Amino acid sequence: AGVDTLVPVLNHLKAEVPLTNAKGAFSRGLAEYGVAAMLHFNKQIPRLQANRGARIWDKFIMNALHGKTCGFIGFGDIAQHTAKLCRALGMRVLAWRNRKTKSEGNELADRVLYASDGPQAKHEIFEQSDFVICSLPGGEATYHACGAAEFAVMKPDGVFISMGRGSCVDEAALVEVLKNKKILGAALDVFEKEPLPLESPLWDLENLLLSPHNADLTPTYMNQTFDIFLEKLSEFRSSSFSGFKDQVEGPRATELRQTPQVAPVAARSCP
Description:
This protein is of the alpha/beta class. It is built from 9 helices and 9 strands.
């Protein structure tokens, strides 16, 4: 994700030129955001804030994340960092991956499904999860991967969280389910158009936690990114270099070279 401004350059590179990314630079901050979003709805933070403002002593039953199920749409570095926190909290983890060739991190999930398993596989994640987190990268293959059909099978008290790329979510479909209270709520850090237009109906939804694509904008993110760059540079300059350890290969590399240029956004690594 976040390669949009590089697409013109990538389109002019030869196929044998190795591609890599800043995998891991933003994962820790985004994992924390994912957990914060779950707690926002699970602990009913808006209700607590409203009660304080109205001076109401409302001693309601406080929910817990322990025993809940978190389903991941996309299970790259961001999702895996988040899954580790989920497991520490005693949550069940489900994962849906685009490619069966990807198996790194599968041990963090109780069950892993793939796109090649058919459309029902992704629906199972939405159907069985209390929280669904999408961290898919952008591109033609993931455009509106989370849409009306997926939201329709979510639990009535389910929560959808998007922190990969805005193009992966059909915002119009999400607005409908949130407006009609078909699910409990959603948290969005990325959007189809950024900055989010003032006329967007998303601004008016009380059951939406909205952040302006800054969940990964931590005090240390520049240092983390530069450290990874130096590691990649050292790897590239090595006399034994034959390809990056985290090299983007196969269909994903081809897709990156062919992706149409769109408005620039902050780079993220969510393979």
